[in-house]
Amino acid sequence: MTAPLLDVRDLRTEFHTRAGVLRAVNGVSFTLARGEILGLVGESGSGKSVTGFSLLGLVDPPGRIAGGSISFEGQELVGLPPARLRELRGKRIAMIFQDPAATLNPVLTVGAQMALAVQAHGGGGDRAARDLAARSLARVGIPDAVTRLDAYPHEFSGGMRQRVAIAIALLHQPDLIVADEPTTALDVSIQAQILAEMKALARENGTALVWISHDLATVSSLADRVLVMYAGRIVESGPVAQVLRAPLHPYTRGLLDSLPAMGRPGEMLAQIPGSTPSLLSLPPGCPFAPRCPRADAACAQDPPVVGTEGRMALCHHPLT
């Protein structure tokens, strides 16, 4: 059996605050094969983005990785010296951040920033770096790419800046891309183009993707497998078609029922009652119990792992 490209075991990421320890990622485990696209979904505050930042060692104080393992091609990333992590980031492992305005340097042209990213990993001289940058911009649908290399980030629209951020991530054709809601600011046609490009990367180059999103429709059309997160834990996982067609966890069912497409014209949209709990004061047992229509006294205990091979859910009362 081929070893996975990425193997995450019992990952725990904490933030130490004056109010206490906030466990943003609490025992997350999963594997990712070459060329596989993994969707990571859940409400805001579920721990999706912090999981992505943890994979690249981008959690800053007061946050820290408190335990667990992140193995990339057999190399342990937790505790790896910063210099070695910098060698991997951008070249072998890339990240597309949600907010391109915070990603791009406002005082450097797009071409200069992309050239620095190329040359940081031995990408050759100025001309070679500029040519590679232009090709990457063209791949994400930016017209007149050579000319736009000399533009500054503020000269692009929000959607165009996001395409630039995606182009930077694609420069070295990395083995793994962690994408944190990268198409939120894009119009539908460009979003479709980017999704097609990501699928082609996975298929042709064996690039693996962790696609973080709250958009179940996008995940269903892109991902091979999906992980559903709630309160820092993975509460359900499995092949995307199976999970979205027949979820095991009531939380996953609630997310699906909340989609506008599930309602009828003129009717109120369904919603999950209540709100996500504070990670500083989680209820005992199942953290979803206060919002769950199936909860009973048993849910005050930690939920068991249920499911068949390839499917998993943490629930005392899974859906059938």
UniProtKB/TrEMBL annotation:
Topology of the protein relative to the lipid bilayer: Peripheral membrane protein
Main location: membrane
GO molecular function: ATP binding
Occurrences of domain ABC transporter (ranges): 6-256
One Pfam family, short name: ABC_tran
Keyword annotations from UniProtKB, A to Z: ATP-binding, Cell membrane, Membrane, Nucleotide-binding, Transport
Protein family according to the UniProt entry: Belongs to the ABC transporter superfamily.
NCBIfam families hit by this protein: oligo_HPY (TIGR01727)
Protein name, UniProt field: Methionine ABC transporter ATP-binding protein
Source species of the chain: Paracraurococcus ruber
Top-level taxonomy: Bacteria, Pseudomonadati, Pseudomonadota, Alphaproteobacteria, Acetobacterales
